[in-house]
Amino acid sequence: MEGQLALTMFIVVCGVLLLGFPVALTLGGTALGFAALGILIGHFDSDYLTALTGRIFGTMSNETLVAVPLFILMGVVLERAKIAEDLLANMAGLFGERPGGLGVAVIIVGALLAASTGIVGATVVTMGVLALPSMLRAGYQPQLATGTICATGTLGQIIPPSIALVLLGDIMSSAYQQAQLRMNIINTDTVSVGDLFVGAMVPGVVLVMLYLAYVLFRAALQPDSAPPAIVEKTHARAAVLAVLPPLGLIVLVLGSILAGAATPTEAAGVGATGALFLAWARGALSFNVMRDISRSTLYTTSMVFLILIGAAVFSLVFRGFGGDSLIESFFEDLGGGPHMALLIVMLVMFLLGFILDFIEITFVVVPVVGPVLLSMGFDPIWLGVMIAVNLQTSFLTPPFGFALFYLRGVAPDSVSTRAIYSGVLPFVVIQLLLLVLMWWWPNLVLWLPGLLGR
How many CA atoms lie within 13 A of 360 on its CB side? Predict the structure, then answer.
């Protein structure tokens, strides 16, 4: 009976989310409602709820999660400083005169923004406003132009420093400790957000290369889909000067993590300070701008932490109903071994991405299946990066891909919604190809962490 209630609670949460209710209130409210029902019918031990205050306090006092508001602040400041405009103008001047050159410029600028902001919505909207009109005027096929912009915007999910990796890293750390305790390992190892950052770097670069290869291939195969553009040519010196500020910030943040000189939380503080300095140097900071930056950072941070609290309530009640044992038994009875279990989980996450966003999947699904998969022997860094790439597709898969909504909001009326939806499909296939590459060649993820002794 308890297992049935756990499964029903999971289904109800997904259904309520589809109705558009806030994620945090849905997770916490549904869980508490089912806990009350379980107590009334005698199938839930109320003692589980005594651990709730400790879980909430643990979430709020988690030093790793301090990186979240700092990385959000860094991204918002860089967005307000309009660094993307200079980058795009100079990259377009370097590559725009070549077939597919504007697409190449968009991908390079998007990758730099991903490594310095990590905010998908800001990148997609910025690129949609700045690059899409230029690409359409140059004669780019609307599907290719919109697909390139949407897909490039999602690079902030996988290229560090990524807020998604910070949240996923905290959940994977807890799941890894639970998995080791299940295997009767008392002196447990840990996996950190920094480990996921390092593991995601090579796959992130590979994904950028795959995007570039696709755009250049399309330009060669169908010249009319990505013709050369008439742009003002950029001198190499001007391009270098435009790239240096964000590149320096990236090196400062990621370099300190890779060198072991700073934790991700400390590096986030350095990044936020560096972003404020860059904005000040460009004369982009004023009282009104700082007020808007503070409000935007506070709003996003509050939303994330409220979701974290709701997720803590949900996972506690789910475990109280024996949901973790139910999932473990399901995989054991499935047959086919650990890889079959992982294949099913990845498939379910991918399909859920059509109707839920990455935050909902991260906090609903990963805490449930993570400990079970890790107890089967999968490397936590590899598994975490695999999940991150899989969740990245949720921004592009219709009907509820958020990158599609962001671009639809700023795209001209001449670009149809159908063109936007069909334009992202090749890039979804590319992301799935990266998943296959990481599956068959785990060293794509594990080589750099092994080199750095993580």
Answer: 28
Burial 151-186 (b: 16+ CB within 10 A, else e): bbbbbbbbbbbbbbbbbbbbbbbbbbbbbbeeeeee
Within 13 Å of residue 218, how many CA atoms lie on the same side as its CB? 25
CB atoms < 10 A from the CB of 48, how many? Answer: 16
Neighbours of 329 (CB within 10 A): 13
CA 61 to chain centre: 23
Of the candidates 212, 354, 304, the residue with the CA atom closest to the CA atom of residue 22: 304
Q: Determine how many CB atoms are found less than 10 A away from the CB of residue 217.
A: 12
Q: Quick check: 104 and 189 in contact, CB under 8 A?
A: no
pTM: 0.86
DSSP annotation of 141 reads -
382 CA to centre of own chain: 16
Look at residues 157, 165, 174, 166 and name the one whose alpha carbon lies nearest to residue 312.
174
- Cis peptide leading into residue 246 (ω within 30°): no
Of 440, 390, 416, 434, nearest to 208 (Cα)? Answer: 434
Rounded Cα distance, 383 and 439, in Å: 9
Quick count: other Cβ atoms within 10 Å of Cβ 236? 9
* pLDDT tens digits, one per residue of 255-303: 888 777 888 888 889 889 998 998 898 888 888 889 998 998 898 888 8
Give the count of beta carbons closer than 10 Å to the beta carbon of residue 330: 15
Judged on CB neighbours under 10 Å (0-12, 13-18, 19+), 295 is exposed
Burial class (CB in 10 A: 0-12, 13-18, 19+), 388: buried
Sign of CA pseudo-dihedral 93, 97, 102, 107: negative
- Quote the CA–CA distance of 61 and 55 in Å, as a whole number: 10
